[in-house]
Specification:
This protein has 162 residues and is an alpha/beta fold. It has a single domain, classed as Rossmann fold (3-Layer(aba) Sandwich), CATH 3.40.50.1170. The strands form three sheets. It has a six-stranded mixed sheet with strand order 4-1-5-6-7-8, sandwiched between helices. A two-stranded antiparallel ribbon has the order 2-3. Strands 9-10 form a two-stranded antiparallel sheet. Helix 3 links the parallel strand 5 and strand 6. The protein starts with a strand and ends with a strand.
Length: 162
């Protein structure tokens, strides 16, 4: 992989909390800063298209994600996305030819100490370089087929839906 295209859509990974009531807004994409701090050995570009909690992502938003990804000249695409509707978005991205697309996010904001964001991004970067063309989800240290995974909201993790 010489070049990684990163499409950001918001979600918990980019949330900024302001007070004890957990009021938040989606801040600037964190992934570029994460990759720069890690000193990665490849070129990347960040294309921010949404700043939404994934519960508010619409069919029109998913169509925008799809058209944005289809228009990219590079094969490797990482999408940061909120975890609640990541599986639904992955299903909408299926069938894009000649691309490896990996969706990832975080269960805790990247700005929080102990966030899973850096681990998930690292897992996703490894996955996007090694997988065959298609759409995948990288969460909780595993690579998932979107058709075979669900988010367990009570346990706050991804698991097999088989």
């Amino acid at each position: 992989m010489q070049h990684l295209t990163i499409v950001t859509t918001g979600g918990t990974i980019d949330k900024i909390y302001f007070d004890d009531k957990s009021d938040y807004q989606i801040g600037a994409p964190q992934i570029g800063e994460i990759l720069t701090q890690l000193g990665v050995g490849f070129r990347f570009e960040v294309i921010p298209i949404l700043r939404k909690d994934s519960l508010h992502v619409t069919d029109e938003d998913r169509a925008l994600m799809r058209s944005t990804i289809e228009a990219q000249p590079h094969r490797h695409v990482l999408v940061t996305h909120g975890t609640d509707t990541m599986v639904e978005t992955a299903a909408q991205l299926a069938g894009i030819p000649d691309k490896v697309i990996v969706l990832t996010g975080a269960l805790n904001p990247a700005r929080f100490q102990g966030s899973d964001a850096v681990f998930n991004v690292g897992c996703a970067v490894g996955a996007v370089q090694t997988l065959a063309d298609g759409v995948y989800i990288a969460m909780n240290g595993r690579i998932w087929d979107p058709a075979k995974v669900r988010k367990n909201r009570d346990a706050n993790r991804f698991e097999s839906n088989a």
